[in-house]
């Protein structure tokens, strides 16, 4: 039986991107270009060695756009590759879109499946949903994490 081709659901994708914009604004706030913020996702006071953190780094700040790099750190940093993505915030349309995930860029709205890169047919939507879940978790369970730098 032939499978129907995946059709991009623009309304759902735009909804995710709009919700992610609002979530990111709450986390990034008025950060300037070059600034970094770390949000603890565990009990960094009693178990700092096993705590995870969400790191936000404003890479570029322009009048109508902001580029934010988001990554996760944790106790297994030397063993596994934690998620890392770059997100463009478009202030004029109030949307945030994943433009880079694990150093891979330029995601299409849909892919044929199977494909050589093993992307899902709705890869772009899934990445933006993942961003939304990641940010929602940070907002619900995160706390300001101050890391003392050792000279």
UniProtKB/TrEMBL annotation:
InterPro entries: DUF1249
A Pfam match: DUF1249
Domain of life of the organism encoding this protein: Bacteria
The protein's name: DUF1249 domain-containing protein
Species annotation: Halomonas cibimaris
């Amino acid at each position: 039986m032939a499978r129907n081709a995946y059709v991009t659901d623009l309304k759902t994708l735009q909804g995710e991107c709009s919700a992610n914009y609002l979530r990111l604004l709450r986390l990034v706030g008025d950060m300037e270009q070059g600034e970094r913020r770390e949000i603890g996702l565990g009990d960094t006071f009693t178990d700092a060695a096993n705590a995870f953190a969400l790191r936000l780094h404003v890479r570029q700040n322009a009048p109508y756009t902001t580029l934010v790099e988001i990554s996760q750190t944790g106790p297994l940093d030397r063993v596994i590759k934690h998620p890392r993505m770059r997100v463009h915030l478009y202030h004029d349309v109030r949307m945030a879109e994943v433009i880079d995930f694990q150093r891979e860029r330029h995601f299409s709205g849909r892919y044929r499946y199977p494909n050589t890169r093993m992307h899902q047919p709705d890869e772009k939507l899934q990445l933006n949903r993942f961003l939304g879940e990641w940010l929602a978790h940070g907002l619900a369970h995160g706390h300001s994490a101050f890391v003392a730098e050792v000279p």
